[in-house]
Amino acid sequence: MPNTPKNSRRLLALALGLGLASGALGTAAPASARVTAEAPAHTSAAGYVGSAGNTGDKAFLDAVLKSVAKRQAGQPSLKVVTVYYNASRAPSFRSQISSAASIWNSSVSNVKLQATSGSADFAYYEGNDPRGSYASTNGHGSGYIFLDYAQNRRYDSIRVAAHETGHVLGLPDHYSGPCSELMSGGGPGPSCTNRYPNSTERTRVNRLWANGLAKAVAQLSKTG
């Protein structure tokens, strides 16, 4: 067939159509199909859905506090503590992580979460894990949050991120709690979409960090 201007326009339109369709399919591809960095092995974990006997949250908070203490060694009297996180290894959940940080930053006043692309006090990872999402330590004093693809499709993803981030600020799991309690996690079931800590949780975090980092470390040692 001669390559007339009319035929060229048709071929161009077809190519553009295929390109747009390919782009749309790429956007809609499930997160599980994406290649991501492998999360470190963990020694203890506090999950979004788990038993009441889960104790991984303390180990995770301990790792985060040690990291913050090392970074703020020259500012021991700083009243408002900033905890830095790196979300570069959880690109599929960048929006949810940002929303979770904003929720906490608007809910408490004595500690703030700040994103960074460099060295951080804890990191987020993403991937597939039959245990679901959890806050954990890697056995070498570093804390991280793992966000599981399947669980985040079943449960409200921002609630999952905000719940796991709650461990950063010192809150333990309480799966038997109501939906209005953020740290009840997956206990109330997938229909629960509350993303905000209740007044008790907000008060607990503010008291924990009331006098800066020293107070938080002291409180952690008491619960040890």
UniProtKB/TrEMBL annotation:
One Pfam family this sequence matches? Peptidase_M7
Kindly give the InterPro entries that the UniProt entry links to this protein.
Answer: MetalloPept_cat_dom_sf, Peptidase_M7, TAT_signal
Q: Which reaction does it catalyse?
A: Hydrolyzes proteins with a preference for Tyr or Phe in the P1' position. Has no action on amino-acid p-nitroanilides
Instruction: Alphabetically list the UniProt keywords.
Output: Disulfide bond, Hydrolase, Metal-binding, Metalloprotease, Protease, Secreted, Signal, Zinc
Top-level EC class as recorded in UniProt: hydrolase
Q: Where in the cell is it found?
A: Secreted
Supply the SUPFAM superfamilies for this chain: Metalloproteases ('zincins'), catalytic domain
Task: Please give the Gene Ontology molecular function terms for this protein.
Answer: hydrolase activity
Which EC numbers characterise this protein's activity in its record? 3.4.24.77
Which family would the database say this protein is a member of?
Belongs to the peptidase M7 family.
This protein's name = Extracellular small neutral protease
- What is the species listed in this Swiss-Prot or TrEMBL entry? Streptomyces actuosus
